[in-house]
Design goal:
With about 280 residues, the protein is α+β, with helices and mostly antiparallel strands. Helix content is about 20%, strand content about 35%. The chain has a 9-stranded mixed beta sheet. InterPro entries: Glyas_Bleomycin-R_OHBP_Dase, Glyas_Fos-R_dOase_dom, Glyoxalase_1_CS, VOC_core.
Protein backbone atom coordinates (compact mmCIF):
# COMPACT_ATOMS: atom_id res chain seq x y z
CA UNK A 1 0.00 0.00 0.00
CA UNK A 2 1.15 3.51 -0.74
CA UNK A 3 0.88 5.49 2.48
CA UNK A 4 1.63 8.82 0.79
CA UNK A 5 -1.44 9.29 -1.37
CA UNK A 6 -5.19 9.47 -0.86
CA UNK A 7 -7.11 8.47 1.20
CA UNK A 8 -4.27 9.14 3.67
CA UNK A 9 -3.21 12.46 5.12
CA UNK A 10 0.57 12.90 5.00
CA UNK A 11 3.43 15.39 5.04
CA UNK A 12 4.21 16.58 1.52
CA UNK A 13 6.60 19.53 1.88
CA UNK A 14 9.01 20.93 4.47
CA UNK A 15 10.00 24.61 4.44
CA UNK A 16 13.34 25.55 5.97
CA UNK A 17 15.32 28.66 6.92
CA UNK A 18 19.04 28.57 6.13
CA UNK A 19 21.96 30.94 6.64
CA UNK A 20 23.41 30.86 3.14
CA UNK A 21 21.20 29.88 0.22
CA UNK A 22 24.09 29.13 -2.15
CA UNK A 23 25.79 26.84 0.37
CA UNK A 24 22.50 25.06 0.98
CA UNK A 25 21.78 24.65 -2.73
CA UNK A 26 25.21 23.13 -3.28
CA UNK A 27 24.43 20.59 -0.56
CA UNK A 28 20.91 19.72 -1.63
CA UNK A 29 21.79 19.51 -5.34
CA UNK A 30 25.26 17.98 -5.30
CA UNK A 31 25.23 15.88 -2.13
CA UNK A 32 21.57 14.77 -1.96
CA UNK A 33 20.59 15.03 -5.62
CA UNK A 34 17.58 17.37 -5.70
CA UNK A 35 16.41 19.24 -8.79
CA UNK A 36 15.85 23.00 -8.45
CA UNK A 37 12.37 23.98 -9.64
CA UNK A 38 12.51 27.66 -8.82
CA UNK A 39 15.16 29.98 -7.42
CA UNK A 40 15.58 33.61 -6.40
CA UNK A 41 18.42 35.39 -4.64
CA UNK A 42 17.17 34.20 -1.23
CA UNK A 43 14.81 31.26 -1.91
CA UNK A 44 14.70 27.93 -3.72
CA UNK A 45 12.21 25.12 -4.29
CA UNK A 46 13.54 21.58 -4.58
CA UNK A 47 12.03 18.47 -6.14
CA UNK A 48 12.89 14.85 -6.83
CA UNK A 49 10.53 14.33 -9.78
CA UNK A 50 10.78 17.80 -11.32
CA UNK A 51 7.15 18.59 -10.41
CA UNK A 52 6.40 18.17 -6.70
CA UNK A 53 8.17 20.48 -4.25
CA UNK A 54 9.52 18.50 -1.30
CA UNK A 55 11.78 21.15 0.26
CA UNK A 56 11.69 24.92 0.10
CA UNK A 57 14.60 27.00 1.36
CA UNK A 58 14.70 30.62 2.38
CA UNK A 59 17.46 32.85 3.70
CA UNK A 60 15.83 35.40 6.02
CA UNK A 61 17.27 38.83 6.73
CA UNK A 62 19.51 38.91 9.79
CA UNK A 63 19.39 35.12 10.01
CA UNK A 64 21.06 33.55 13.04
CA UNK A 65 22.41 29.99 13.50
CA UNK A 66 20.12 27.18 14.60
CA UNK A 67 19.27 27.58 18.28
CA UNK A 68 19.78 24.57 20.54
CA UNK A 69 17.22 23.20 23.00
CA UNK A 70 14.20 24.70 21.26
CA UNK A 71 11.08 23.31 19.61
CA UNK A 72 11.01 22.80 15.85
CA UNK A 73 12.63 20.38 13.44
CA UNK A 74 14.33 17.23 14.69
CA UNK A 75 14.55 15.85 11.18
CA UNK A 76 12.63 15.52 7.94
CA UNK A 77 12.73 12.13 6.27
CA UNK A 78 13.09 11.37 2.57
CA UNK A 79 11.58 8.00 1.63
CA UNK A 80 13.38 6.31 -1.26
CA UNK A 81 11.51 3.84 -3.51
CA UNK A 82 13.81 0.83 -3.07
CA UNK A 83 16.42 -0.67 -0.79
CA UNK A 84 18.89 -0.55 -3.68
CA UNK A 85 18.41 3.23 -3.79
CA UNK A 86 19.37 3.44 -0.11
CA UNK A 87 22.43 1.32 -0.83
CA UNK A 88 23.45 3.64 -3.66
CA UNK A 89 23.23 6.79 -1.57
CA UNK A 90 25.12 5.08 1.27
CA UNK A 91 27.89 4.22 -1.20
CA UNK A 92 27.78 7.84 -2.44
CA UNK A 93 28.23 9.22 1.09
CA UNK A 94 31.14 6.86 1.67
CA UNK A 95 32.80 7.80 -1.63
CA UNK A 96 32.57 11.57 -1.02
CA UNK A 97 33.32 11.30 2.68
CA UNK A 98 30.14 13.03 3.85
CA UNK A 99 29.68 12.42 7.59
CA UNK A 100 26.67 10.45 8.78
CA UNK A 101 25.23 10.99 12.25
CA UNK A 102 23.66 7.56 12.45
CA UNK A 103 22.44 4.46 10.62
CA UNK A 104 19.69 2.27 12.02
CA UNK A 105 17.41 -0.67 11.38
CA UNK A 106 13.98 0.23 12.80
CA UNK A 107 12.38 -3.13 11.86
CA UNK A 108 9.77 -1.31 9.74
CA UNK A 109 12.46 0.60 7.86
CA UNK A 110 16.19 1.10 7.33
CA UNK A 111 17.57 4.61 7.74
CA UNK A 112 20.59 6.88 7.39
CA UNK A 113 20.89 10.11 9.41
CA UNK A 114 22.81 13.27 8.57
CA UNK A 115 22.46 17.05 8.70
CA UNK A 116 22.58 19.84 6.16
CA UNK A 117 25.22 22.61 6.50
CA UNK A 118 22.98 24.50 8.95
CA UNK A 119 22.37 21.52 11.22
CA UNK A 120 18.85 20.77 9.96
CA UNK A 121 18.38 17.06 10.58
CA UNK A 122 17.75 14.69 7.68
CA UNK A 123 16.75 11.03 7.58
CA UNK A 124 16.96 9.10 4.32
CA UNK A 125 15.24 5.75 4.48
CA UNK A 126 13.42 2.92 2.78
CA UNK A 127 10.50 0.95 4.15
CA UNK A 128 10.28 -2.76 4.61
CA UNK A 129 7.03 -4.22 3.16
CA UNK A 130 4.13 -3.31 5.44
CA UNK A 131 3.11 -6.98 5.47
CA UNK A 132 6.22 -7.66 7.58
CA UNK A 133 5.47 -5.01 10.24
CA UNK A 134 4.45 -6.36 13.62
CA UNK A 135 1.55 -4.76 15.50
CA UNK A 136 0.59 -5.26 19.14
CA UNK A 137 -2.43 -3.58 20.78
CA UNK A 138 -2.73 -1.26 17.75
CA UNK A 139 0.88 -0.13 18.06
CA UNK A 140 3.53 -0.93 15.49
CA UNK A 141 6.71 -2.52 16.81
CA UNK A 142 9.74 -0.34 16.06
CA UNK A 143 13.27 -0.53 17.41
CA UNK A 144 16.70 0.97 16.84
CA UNK A 145 19.11 -1.75 15.80
CA UNK A 146 22.43 -1.61 13.93
CA UNK A 147 22.02 -1.19 10.19
CA UNK A 148 23.33 -3.99 7.97
CA UNK A 149 25.41 -1.63 5.85
CA UNK A 150 27.21 -4.43 4.02
CA UNK A 151 23.92 -5.90 2.81
CA UNK A 152 22.78 -2.47 1.64
CA UNK A 153 25.99 -1.87 -0.27
CA UNK A 154 25.66 -5.27 -1.93
CA UNK A 155 22.14 -4.33 -2.99
CA UNK A 156 23.54 -1.23 -4.72
CA UNK A 157 25.75 -3.48 -6.90
CA UNK A 158 28.37 -0.74 -7.14
CA UNK A 159 26.05 1.59 -9.06
CA UNK A 160 26.79 5.29 -8.70
CA UNK A 161 24.35 7.77 -7.22
CA UNK A 162 23.02 10.12 -9.91
CA UNK A 163 20.12 11.95 -8.24
CA UNK A 164 17.14 11.36 -6.01
CA UNK A 165 14.84 8.85 -7.74
CA UNK A 166 11.69 10.45 -9.11
CA UNK A 167 9.60 8.29 -6.78
CA UNK A 168 11.14 9.85 -3.65
CA UNK A 169 8.56 11.36 -1.29
CA UNK A 170 8.58 13.17 2.03
CA UNK A 171 8.15 10.10 4.19
CA UNK A 172 7.65 11.83 7.53
CA UNK A 173 8.67 14.72 9.74
CA UNK A 174 9.93 14.45 13.32
CA UNK A 175 9.50 17.47 15.59
CA UNK A 176 10.78 18.71 18.92
CA UNK A 177 7.83 19.75 21.07
CA UNK A 178 7.56 21.27 24.54
CA UNK A 179 5.19 18.67 26.03
CA UNK A 180 3.12 15.69 24.88
CA UNK A 181 -0.36 15.88 26.45
CA UNK A 182 -1.69 18.94 24.61
CA UNK A 183 0.39 17.95 21.59
CA UNK A 184 -1.30 14.54 21.39
CA UNK A 185 -4.75 16.15 21.64
CA UNK A 186 -3.88 18.63 18.89
CA UNK A 187 -2.61 16.01 16.45
CA UNK A 188 -5.23 13.33 17.17
CA UNK A 189 -8.47 15.13 18.09
CA UNK A 190 -7.58 18.12 15.93
CA UNK A 191 -5.67 16.91 12.89
CA UNK A 192 -7.13 13.39 12.91
CA UNK A 193 -3.97 11.31 13.26
CA UNK A 194 -3.79 8.08 15.27
CA UNK A 195 -1.04 7.24 17.75
CA UNK A 196 0.73 4.13 16.41
CA UNK A 197 3.71 4.00 18.78
CA UNK A 198 4.90 5.49 22.06
CA UNK A 199 8.46 5.78 23.34
CA UNK A 200 7.83 5.92 27.07
CA UNK A 201 6.65 9.41 28.00
CA UNK A 202 9.21 11.03 25.70
CA UNK A 203 7.92 10.54 22.16
CA UNK A 204 4.82 9.80 20.10
CA UNK A 205 4.59 8.46 16.57
CA UNK A 206 1.37 9.15 14.67
CA UNK A 207 -0.06 8.37 11.25
CA UNK A 208 -3.08 7.82 9.08
CA UNK A 209 -3.82 4.56 7.25
CA UNK A 210 -1.69 2.52 9.69
CA UNK A 211 1.65 3.80 8.41
CA UNK A 212 4.48 3.39 10.93
CA UNK A 213 4.52 7.17 11.26
CA UNK A 214 3.86 10.27 9.20
CA UNK A 215 4.85 12.47 12.16
CA UNK A 216 7.15 11.92 15.14
CA UNK A 217 6.93 14.16 18.22
CA UNK A 218 9.46 14.21 21.06
CA UNK A 219 10.43 16.19 24.17
CA UNK A 220 14.15 15.38 23.90
CA UNK A 221 15.04 19.10 23.94
CA UNK A 222 13.40 19.32 27.36
CA UNK A 223 9.91 19.69 28.80
CA UNK A 224 8.92 23.31 28.30
CA UNK A 225 11.47 23.90 25.53
CA UNK A 226 10.93 27.39 24.08
CA UNK A 227 10.19 28.25 20.47
CA UNK A 228 13.21 29.42 18.46
CA UNK A 229 13.51 33.06 17.44
CA UNK A 230 11.75 33.93 14.18
CA UNK A 231 15.05 34.56 12.33
CA UNK A 232 16.72 31.35 13.55
CA UNK A 233 17.77 28.65 11.12
CA UNK A 234 15.30 25.76 11.20
CA UNK A 235 11.70 24.98 10.37
CA UNK A 236 9.48 27.62 8.76
CA UNK A 237 6.50 25.29 8.35
CA UNK A 238 5.45 21.99 6.87
CA UNK A 239 2.56 21.04 4.61
CA UNK A 240 -0.06 18.41 5.35
CA UNK A 241 -1.73 17.00 2.25
CA UNK A 242 -5.39 16.04 2.68
CA UNK A 243 -7.20 13.75 0.24
CA UNK A 244 -10.03 16.19 -0.54
CA UNK A 245 -11.73 19.44 0.45
CA UNK A 246 -14.33 17.66 2.57
CA UNK A 247 -11.64 16.08 4.73
CA UNK A 248 -9.85 19.40 5.13
CA UNK A 249 -13.06 21.19 6.12
CA UNK A 250 -13.76 18.52 8.73
CA UNK A 251 -10.22 18.84 10.12
CA UNK A 252 -10.49 22.64 10.33
CA UNK A 253 -13.77 22.17 12.25
CA UNK A 254 -12.09 19.69 14.61
CA UNK A 255 -9.16 22.05 15.21
CA UNK A 256 -11.49 24.91 16.10
CA UNK A 257 -13.45 22.61 18.44
CA UNK A 258 -10.33 22.00 20.54
CA UNK A 259 -9.46 25.69 20.59
CA UNK A 260 -6.76 25.68 17.94
CA UNK A 261 -6.53 28.71 15.68
CA UNK A 262 -6.82 28.31 11.90
CA UNK A 263 -6.09 31.30 9.70
CA UNK A 264 -6.07 31.90 5.96
CA UNK A 265 -2.85 33.41 4.60
CA UNK A 266 -2.22 33.98 0.90
CA UNK A 267 -4.67 31.26 -0.06
CA UNK A 268 -3.34 28.77 2.51
CA UNK A 269 -5.09 27.53 5.62
CA UNK A 270 -2.55 27.62 8.46
CA UNK A 271 -2.60 26.25 11.99
CA UNK A 272 0.06 26.13 14.70
CA UNK A 273 0.66 23.26 17.10
CA UNK A 274 1.04 23.89 20.87
CA UNK A 275 4.83 24.19 20.46
CA UNK A 276 4.71 26.81 17.72
CA UNK A 277 5.26 24.53 14.71
CA UNK A 278 3.40 26.02 11.70
CA UNK A 279 1.36 23.66 9.54
CA UNK A 280 -0.11 24.43 6.10
CA UNK A 281 -3.34 22.52 5.39
CA UNK A 282 -3.39 21.57 1.70
CA UNK A 283 -5.48 19.51 -0.69
Amino acid sequence: MNFHREPNTFVEQVNLKVQNIERSLAFYKDIIGFKVLDQTATTAKLSADGKTVLISLEQPENVIPKQPRTTGLYHFALLLPTRADLGKILLHFIQIGYPLQGASDHLVSEALYLADPDGNGIEIYTDRPSSTWDWKNNEVIMSTEPLDAQSLLEEAQGQSWKALPSGTVMGHIHLHVSELKKTEEFYTKGLGFAVVSRYGNQALFISTGKYHHHIGLNTWNGIGAPEPLANSVGLVSYTLKFPDEGTRKNIIHQLKNIGAIVTEENGYFVTIDPSGNRILLQI
